Amino acid sequence: YYISLPSFPEASGNLLSSTFYLIGIPGYEAAHCWISIPFCLLYLIGIVGNSTILHIIRTDPSLHEPMYYFLAMLSFTDMGMSLSTLPTMLRIFWFNANAITFDACVTQMFFIHSLSLMESSVLLAMAFDRYVAICNPLRYSTILTPQRIAKIGVAAFLRSAFCMIPLLVRLAYFPFCRSHVLSHSYCLHQDMIRLACADTKFNVIYGLVLITVLWGFDSLGILVSYIFILRSVLSIASREERLKALNTCASHICAVLILYVPMIGLSIVHRFAKHASPLVHILMAHIYLLVPPVLNPIIYSVKTKQIRRGVVRLLAPKRICSILG
Prior knowledge:
InterPro entries: GPCR_Rhodpsn, GPCR_Rhodpsn_7TM, Olfact_rcpt, OR51/52/56-like
Distance between the termini: 56 Å
Subcellular location: Cell membrane; Membrane
Domain G-protein coupled receptors family 1 profile: 49-300
CATH architecture: Up-down Bundle
Oligomer: single chain
Pfam families: 7tm_4
Number of domains: 1
Order of helices and strands: EHHEHHHHHHHHH
Organism: Vombatus ursinus
């Protein structure tokens, strides 16, 4: 497959190396305004959906419980992911403004990668929450106190942020003497280092180890939590009680799959489909960043009764809310 990329002033070498160029959908520049419609719709659904969940949890005292505090962290992270990529996406699709400074690119990169890692940490915390609720319900409120939940949230953010700092700091010392055209509508670390005219071995190895250790630790923790949960659930005599216990985990399992399946798909495409059409790489990257913020609030609104009631209270008159119970 061959897709011609738009020409940029950087190719002539007249501009400083602090300027980079993002692309939208290569080969379809004339249709960017139309292509922006589904993207804007997805962004709107994601931002409004996560904002609604945050508002419901904040205003409903009955939802001030560990499970919903972790859900608020997940919604906050998803909304941050959407807001991190939205500005450059709209500039490219609406105004054909492709240029971005190095500092702005690194800043966007920091939030995208940090929030992505943080979402994995939050899902691990939510798995631990389900484990305590099902396997040790009598100590649920004493183990997951509001103070401890706040510490978990702060630790998740600091872990993700501090781990990214060495990678991004080193970028400032790299000379970029090749083309300054990046491959997406937003800045990614793996996309920028391929343009560097320097030894990027540390960044490549550190980035691979970082992803393997952090996501590997989180996914292993989630797996172990569900092994204990299944063992505890299978010991329940009543079939109805078993289904009720597993149903409380359904939304979280969907959220885990929504994050990890596109992530694994994107990794496979990068590793084993390097010669595939650029559209495949771009599509997988957009799915990875856009799908979780869009689907998570929908899933929790459908599967969680308390959230569903909160949504109905916002959208429907009080009489309808009383009918729905």
